[in-house]
Amino acid sequence: MKLIKKTALGAVLSLGMFSTAYAAECIAPANPGGGWDFTCRQIGKIMYDIKAVDSPIQVTNMAGAGGGLAYSTVVNERNTDEDLIIAASSATTTRLAQNAYGGATADQVRFVGAIGADPGVIAVGADSEFTSLSQLVDAIKANPGSVAFAGGSAVGGFDHLKPLMILQRAGFTDITKVKYIGVDGGADAITQTIGGFTQAMTGDMSEIVGFLKSGDIRVLAVLTEDRIPGFDDIPTAKEQGFDVVAVNWRGLYIPKGVSDEVFDTWADRLAKVAASDEWKQAMVDNGLAPFTKVGGDFQSYVDGLVAEIQQLSKDIGVIQ
User: Fold this and answer.
1) Which residues face 149 on adjacent strands?
2) Helical residues (DSSP H) of the chain, grouped into ranges
3) What residue ranges define each of the domains in the chain, with the CATH number in brackets?
4) Measured between alpha carbons, how far is 99 from 233 in angstroms, rounded to an integer?
5) Strand 217-222 and strand 247-255: pairing?
6) Average pLDDT, the chain
7) Sign of the CA dihedral 264, 266, 267, 273?
8) For 199-231, what is each residue's pLDDT tens digit?
9) Using one digit for the tens of pLDDT, what is the confidence trace for 19-40?
């Protein structure tokens, strides 16, 4: 148990800051709002509401270097803090894989788990000639320059890597010939595709729901293990023969220097949140799909994901 305190590195956003006792602290490696802040606040609140922890969890916003400031602070200053959890997502592992955190590596912390995800998607305009993922892949294999993807991440970012993973599973290895245009967010990527400037869009489910309901786009595949509830008519890439699961997961890591017992305790708490009605409602309210991997299962998933992103990033020249 510890009392909340202000640090020079992050603005603590809580009420009753001189009187409230906290069970633990969750660092959101960004300003208020957005995915990491959501992860800390929702998971922390539900942990307390369902009595997985005895006291509220303090949230500290620590923006900087795309998550790198928080990462280095945890590794270098708080490596044995048993009461610390840190919000993470696919962006965390992508940046670690691409050495975007100044030499920091994914094995310097312990990844506890993910309990929800924004599913990756591959979409085309409603009037596109492509009606299946296989048709799109075959067109690229026949003529790589004939298809350009738009995505909301920069070149080498996670949106860029999603179609490359699919193409590699299809036996296409010359991925440097695949055209990708990074724009400012998923909505811009969809606009590019609807307007015919690109032939396909790579992004996340939350970005395309409105366009899908309005009939402007066709989703060729969701990159999840199973079809998404509420969108059951959209097939997964896996069922179309491309073994790719690429989601923007929402989860946590903790300092590496804590014991296995502490790791297991946080994994158990996170699993309880995942099983709660409160979290199920939070996923519905925020457009997330079920994606529960905790403990050693999640750490293995992260290790494999980092290795794949590193290799893909080398193949397209993002890193050496």
Assistant:
1) 180, 200
2) 35-49, 68-77, 90-97, 133-142, 158-169, 186-194, 205-213, 260-275, 277-286, 296-315
3) 2-117+248-315 (3.40.190.150), 119-240 (3.40.190.10)
4) 38
5) unpaired
6) 91
7) positive
8) 999 999 988 888 998 999 999 999 998 888 888
9) 467 889 999 999 998 889 999 9
